[in-house]
Structures are given as structure tokens and as C-alpha cells.
Amino acid sequence: MVDKVLLMEMIPNLIQLLQLPIIKDSRGNLTFIENNKHIPFEIKRIYYLYDVPGGAERGGHAHRELKQFIIAVSGSFDVVVYDGKFRQRFHLNRSYFGLYLPNMVWRELDNFSSGSVCLVLASELYDEKDYIRDITLFEKEVGQKL
């Protein structure tokens, strides 16, 4: 039986914590993700972070076009997001919840638990030109769009 998906209106350019479907079974649960149904984009790239040393940080950038969906498939970690005005911390620790990040959002990942695995679904293929790695430049670019 599939649990009811947490219904959240998909408003463009909003960061959202979304619950994914769960098929419960005594042998173990199963969660799945379908393009443009459970996440608001077509998946073009998947990658994951693991063996992150204690105290290390990842991210520290924004994307001009790319959208992401971040899941803690094992363990836990925090995602700090900044839209140019507000900063918010999300603690991810359940494999059936994911954080949707639209483009033009600064993100930092930290507080990784031992053995954690961070799965990232991306809307675009890797393109270094899409990255903004300087927060001052990000604030300037996002300020022009606000």
C-alpha cells in the first residue's frame, strides 16, 4: 500500500521539504521518485556524497539554472539555504523526505553524521558555468532578480 504523499503546492522558486511516497512492507519499506511527479523537474543527473569527514562542509555555492532535490538516504546532515534575504537550516534525517532547491539559492551542507549518504537529483548535466562560487557575486546576481 502506498502512503499518501504529503501534498504541497509547487510554487516556483520556493525551497520546499517534500515527503516522498512510501510502500510499507514487513520485509522493508520502499520509496520511489518519478520525474515531474514527486519532484518538479526531469532528472538529468544523480550523484551522492559519502565518507564526509567529521566537521567537513560541502556545497558553498549556488546555481544559475540547475534545480536540485537532496535526500539523506542514510544518516543525517544539515542544509543551510540562503536566497539573498533569508537564511534557513534544514535537518535531513529521513530517506522519505527531500529538500527541493530551485535555482539561485545558495546552499551549504554540514553536520554530517557518521556513515551518512547525501543523494542529489539534479535537473541539468554538470556545467561549471552554472555555478556561482562567490557569495558576494551571488548576492549581486540574486539582488538584480528580486
Unreliably modeled segments: 1-12
Q: What is the tally of beta strands?
A: 12
CATH fold topology = Jelly Rolls
Rg to the nearest angstrom?
Answer: 15 Å
Percent range for β-strand residues: 35-45%
| CATH-level-2 architecture | Sandwich
**Dominant shape:** globular
User: How do the strands of the widest beta sheet line up side by side?
Assistant: 1-9-6-11-4
N-to-C SSE series?
A: EEEEEEEEEEEEH
CATH homologous superfamily caption: Jelly Rolls
Number of helices: 1
Euclidean distance between termini CA atoms = 43 Å
Q: What's a quick, concise take on this entry?
A:
By secondary structure, the chain is mostly beta strands. It has one helix at 135-145, and strands at 16-19, 22-23, 30-31, 45-50, 58-63, 68-74, 77-82, 87-92, 97-101, 106-110, 117-122, 131-132. Helices cover 8% and strands 39% of the residues.
Characteristics of this structure?
five-stranded antiparallel sheet; disordered N terminus; 146 residues; mainly beta; globular; 8% helix; Jelly Rolls
